[in-house]
Specification:
about 750 residues, alpha+beta, six-stranded mixed β-sheet, globular, disordered N terminus
Length: about 750
């Protein structure tokens, strides 16, 4: 994003102030008309002119120009995070409101309640920030979070800290500078890291080292500067041949080398207890690929293979966060290779999308560098869950995010004495899901301090809670109103979706069975058209309604026939008596005479078909059903239609059994349900491919809310082969169930 030049000199005159204000407003307006309209721009210029009182001192108690700091904060936010209208307005107006030159009511009336709300949050934090106690930094972090009732306030404070750190180089008050640097490093850099604002985090840490240990900072910076020419030359010598090979492969990319931050180099020096000359990975090469979404992974692996063909890789330092991304969403492929002059070089491969997430992501990326987990991590984990499922932009989504992590919480114990922290108002159900999602899904109540309590009981600090479960218990929609934890709510939604998928399968089976009984061939395109016409967003919703008996299958099929054959006269189905049935002689070359027998006789020359509703295979318990066309339809005894056929048409049933000789490969459908993990389908198909008597003919997979549901058509020679392959599929990690469909 292009921004206007950064302010480089103090603004000592009202004219200079207004010039910079106008420049900022023009910049915001050019970014997006929705941020600042023409009328709002004029109104904002008038407002800034009004509050720029030349008679009052433009400097704060530390000698910093307040308007300059304000403008820099707004510009830095727009450049480093996201150009959000309300946040930028709150940054511009916070100081006048805190100084009493503007009231919250005026801000609310002119610019909206949300802007006034943000200013109130910033005011709460800034009033407390001056009372920071370095000895209790973790407590201060918690109090800052509790005072800021909106995560956007925390982001504003992070940017404010960055601008402040940039402004205090060589400030005469060294004690104050040290206090600001300590706060930036221990508080705002860590929060920036947790929010994935890596560039800001790195700069805060570098500036903090510069102000608190200038000798070390200068030593490392000087050494880097001295070796810059050699380092740049080495990077060029390494990149050029790699670049040519990647171009020959037809890849579109940017490749660059970057020197690691001074603070991270200093951390390595302390950890390894060596001088900077002994730190070999002072820089890293990054290859950013311009790939289509469907080719992201393959392009990264292609680039990786090209690199490792050129230079010897170190397998111990290979990191694959593309096949399985980190829990915080970080995706990248890292390789360390032996470059020229026997130097180890780290190369990172990622796409433009992956790089954007890594550089400006607002998801919880703190675990990338292994920052120690604390209770803030739990809150950030909830933010990550919501961000990953949010359909709107992250800044818009976080607008409604409340933080009650430190000021509103309760502590409860398990019977074994384990301590759990929960948000205030948490119920027995929250506690159960905190222990484990399966415990929560089957929770029926709890014994709290020796007394039986219901799911809605609100836990108090010091309670000892023993969760009661039942295998017959299942999550219900009303549970969503019983919990306060985002994690619990997400788990309940996931379980409800699983149950909905199960009901949808039942509903689909009902429709298909009714359609077969009426000899209606269902076309998927026409079916989906009718489902959409009836107002359903997905087939899953429709089939679930069928299973719940809210939709009559007969009525639906009549509508389907009207939709697909509107001009045709439907002839009544001919009813044939038992005496009129005539066995048709088979000319079907696939009809094997030694596969089936009727009673004591083989079905020689008779037409028979294996029913598609149950797909029997050799070894199944089967029966024959004489259809109106003279064919013998072979069904499994446990066929979904068996009960109806046996009750309504007992005179059409024929005793059928296998002849004792294994027949041809027959199709059979299986259903697999599991977690939507990367590689799970590959693992399943790999198992099938290794079975000598099983072939994979077709596969269909649907993914929704972290779960996948797959239908596989296999070719098997007998039921024992099918049983064996199902058993092996169930052992695959992530597979919840595998059954014959």
């Amino acid at each position: 994003m292009n921004t206007s030049p950064e302010i480089t000199a103090p603004l000592h005159s009202p004219v200079a102030m207004l010039r910079e204000c106008s420049s900022l407003i023009s910049q915001l307006k050019s970014l997006s008309p929705s941020l600042v309209t023409d009328s709002e721009a004029d109104k904002l210029r008038h407002f800034l002119k009004k509050i720029s009182d030349p008679s009052s001192s433009p400097f704060d108690e530390n000698g910093l120009h307040t308007l300059r700091q304000t403008l820099l904060t707004a510009k830095t936010f727009a450049d480093s995070v996201e150009p959000d209208r309300n946040i930028i307005l709150a940054i511009l107006m916070a100081r006048p409101v805190l100084d009493g030159r503007l009231s919250s009511a005026e801000v609310s009336a002119e610019w909206g309640e949300d802007v006034a709300y943000l200013i109130e949050g910033v005011g709460n934090v800034m009033r407390f920030a001056d009372k920071n106690d370095m000895a209790a930094q973790e407590n201060f972090r918690g109090l800052i979070l509790s005072l800021a009732d909106d995560i956007r306030v925390i982001i504003i404070m992070i940017i404010r800290s960055l601008v402040l750190m940039r402004s205090i180089n060589h400030h005469p008050d060294t004690d104050w500078v040290n206090a600001v640097a300590f706060e930036a490093n221990c508080l705002y850099a860590q929060l920036a890291h947790r929010l994935g604002l890596y560039k800001i985090k790195g700069e805060l840490e570098d500036l903090s080292l510069k102000y608190t240990n200038r000798e070390i900072y200068t030593q490392i910076a000087r050494k880097l500067n001295e070796t810059k020419r050699d380092r740049d030359a080495y990077i060029v010598s390494f990149i050029d041949p790699v670049k040519r090979k990647l171009e020959e492969a037809g890849l579109k990319f940017d490749i660059k080398g970057r020197t690691k931050s001074i603070s991270s180099i200093w951390a390595k020096m302390r950890k390894q207890k060596v001088d900077i000359d002994r730190i070999y990975d002072l820089f890293a090469i990054r290859v950013i690929l311009d790939s289509e979404p469907e080719k992201e992974k393959s392009d990264c692996w292609l680039a990786y293979s090209i690199l490792t063909d050129m230079y010897t890789p170190n397998p111990k330092r290979m990191r694959d966060w593309i096949s399985i991304p980190k829990s915080n969403g970080y995706e990248s492929l890292h390789a360390t290779v032996m470059g020229p002059d026997s130097k180890w070089v780290e190369v990172q491969f990622r796409t433009k999308r992956m790089d954007l997430v890594a550089e400006k992501g607002l998801a919880a990326h703190w675990r990338y560098k292994g920052v120690k987990s604390d209770s803030t991590d739990q809150w950030m984990n909830n933010i990550r869950d919501i961000l990953e499922s949010a359909k709107s932009g992250p800044m818009e989504m976080m607008r409604d995010m409340k933080m009650d992590l430190y000021t509103k919480e309760v502590y409860a114990f398990t019977p074994k004495g384990d301590l759990f922290r929960l948000p205030a108002g948490a119920t027995v159900l929250d506690f159960a899901f905190l222990i484990h999602s399966n415990v929560g899904a089957h929770c029926t109540g709890a014994i709290v301090n020796g007394r039986h309590r219901r799911l809605t009981y609100r836990i108090e600090s010091g309670d000892t809670v023993e969760i009661l479960t039942s295998s017959t218990q299942a999550p219900k929609a009303e549970w969503l109103n019983m919990v306060v934890s985002p994690k619990s709510r997400n788990k309940i939604k996931q379980k409800l979706n699983e149950e909905k998928q199960h009901r949808a399968e039942l509903g689909k089976e009902i429709i298909e069975r009714r359609a077969k009984n009426r000899k209606i061939d269902i076309e998927e395109a026409a079916l989906m058209k009718l489902i959409k016409k009836l107002g359903f967003k997905s087939a899953t919703d429709f089939y679930a309604e069928v299973a719940d008996e809210h939709i009559d299958p007969t009525t639906f099929l009549n509508e389907y026939l009207e939709l697909t054959n509107p001009a045709e006269d439907k002839e009544p189905v001919a009813h044939t008596s038992a005496e009129e049935f005539r066995m048709q002689q088979s000319s079907d070359e696939n009809a094997s005479s030694d596969v089936l027998i009727i009673g004591e006789k083989a079905i020689n020359g008779l037409k028979y078909k294996f029913s598609r509703c149950c797909n029997p295979v050799y070894g199944d318990s089967v029966f024959g059903f004489v259809s109106t066309d003279g064919y013998v339809k072979i069904h499994r005894d446990d066929c979904p239609n068996a009960r109806d056929l046996k009750q309504r048409y007992p005179y059409r049933l024929i005793k059928v059994d296998w002849s004792g000789k294994q027949g041809q490969i027959l199709p059979v459908s299986i259903k697999i349900v599991g977690t939507d993990d990367i590689g799970i389908i590959a693992n399943i198909t790999s198992i099938i491919s290794k079975e000598p008597s099983v072939t994979l003919r077709n596969i269909s997979v649907d993914s929704h809310d972290g779960l996948f549901q797959g239908y596989l058509t296999l070719g098997v020679s007998d039921s024992s082969c099918l049983t064996a392959v199902l058993k092996k599929i169930k052992t695959v990690k992530g597979v919840k169930d595998a059954t014959r469909n």
